[in-house]
Amino acid sequence: MTSPAPLEILWLSDGKPGHYSLSEAIIAALSRKRSTSTTRVEVTRPLWLPPRLLSTITNIRPALVPRLLGLDFARTPTPAVIVSAGGDTLAANVAAARHFAVPNVFYGSLRRYRPEDFALVLTSYAEHDESAPGGRPNTVMTLKPSPRDPDQLPMPPRNEGTPLSIGVLIGGDSGTIHYDTADWDRLVALVSEASAAHLRLTIANSRRTPVHVSDRLACLATRSAIAFIDVRTAGPGTLGPLFAGSHAVVATVDSSSMISEAVWARRPVVVLTPAQWSLPALEQKYRQDMERQGWTASLRLADATPAKIATTIRTLSPLTTNPLDDLSNLIERRLKLP
Questions:
Q1: How far apart are CA 247 and CA 253, in angstroms?
Q2: Cα-flanking dihedrals φ and ψ of residue 112, to 5°?
Q3: Pairing of strands 104-107, 120-123
């Protein structure tokens, strides 16, 4: 008996790391039960073409979209499914689905695009789910996906009396979230106190982390048992070892992606909040949903201590299923693929 031919995937990418990871997660889910072959096509929206105008053209004259975006579908292998994430890929996703007459999957906000033009839209926002009052067709809420397979990240062993290993994910100012000098001083002090309290820490910064904070963390790591993954030298995509070596994760509140990825890795997550912060209403509800599930809990930076973090971790109940398999099953139910 011959094996089925690989599922042909057309991945439309805007090249942005966050969107790149979301698309990779969808492709990883598609690859859970069968072999796949992926063609990646870069999509760049010309600066002279505003997103609003591009969406109008897509809705009225979709046949113009490939030419406007410099796409040559005649030279693109015929896919069985199209995948993308990021607003600049929306028009290309719709146009490709119409050209090839195959289902398309998108993660994120549709902005001015019609949900009916997609076979499946994945969202983190419950209000957009098709089952919600006023929800959108073909739209399903899910945990923000990651390509990482949590089955490959088993919880590290811990014998009685040995230190708790904690991964610390540090971001920076973002939108309505602001860290002042006192917040950063408290964070660095908290990390130092946790090390002294015999918690084993692995810290990772981000591109948003202020240089002076990253420098202080790097200095602290040279004179303590703290491990520091510095994005300035390590580059992106280096969090696998952090998750693999951690019993729990502490993350600053600014990055939904960092928090979601830690939840996806089936680790209890403590979220640290600065003095000044807020979130858009839909994002706030997404975070509250993770707290209601018992996956995360929040602590104010000003009040956080190593003891409070350890106590909070014990109250949490991480995911028990494999979210990559859950996503795979969802896509299989929703799409009619060859």
A1: 19
A2: -100, 15
A3: parallel
List the beta strands (DSSP E) in the chain: 7-13, 36-42, 81-85, 104-107, 120-123, 139-141, 165-169, 200-204, 227-229, 248-252, 269-273, 296-300
Neighbours of 215 (CB within 10 A): 13
Query: What whole-number distance in Å separates Cα of residue 105 and Cα of residue 160?
Result: 46
- Three-class DSSP category at 124: coil
The runs of H, that is alpha helices, within 122-207 are 181-196
Chain segment 76-129, per-residue pLDDT in tens = 999 999 999 999 999 999 999 999 999 999 999 998 999 999 999 999 999 999
Report the alpha-carbon distance of residue 232 to residue 210 in Å, rounded: 11
Q: Taking residues 284-309, what's their average pLDDT?
A: 96
The pair of structure tokens assigned to 182 is: 């006192």
pLDDT at 288: 96
Looking at residue 100, its pLDDT comes to 96
> What is d(CA 148, CA 25) in angstroms, rounded to the nearest whole number?
7
Measured CA to CA, the distance from residue 54 to residue 45 in angstroms comes to 9
In this structure, are residues 45 and 53 in contact, taking their beta carbons and an 8 Å threshold?
Answer: no
- Positive or negative: CA dihedral 124, 125, 126, 131: negative
